[in-house]
Amino acid sequence: MYYTYMLRCTDNSVYTGITTNLERRMEEHFSQNEKCAKYTKRHKAKKLEAAWSSENRQIASKLEYHLKHLPKQEKEKIIVNNAELKILGSKINVEDYKRVNLKEEV
Fold it and tell me: Looking at domain 2-105, which CATH architecture does it have?
């Protein structure tokens, strides 16, 4: 199982990444230890905003790629309005991803 996730940083930017262990990866980002991303070393992560599970790395990476290339306004729609991945239209098969209930998962 792979997770694609979006983090809110203290400067209000949005970081997107993938992992096999969401809890461990969040600890790395929030603690800013040596394994956190370069981006979250400079832009401190403050909140996990959204996450999706998928069955393999290829599918998770595809979602990560498309999320990273969205304008910030579109990323905010996905986060704030809980607008599922329909924004990505024909670029991905939305059936490959399941939104993670963050209260239960992390």
Answer: 3-Layer(aba) Sandwich (3.40)
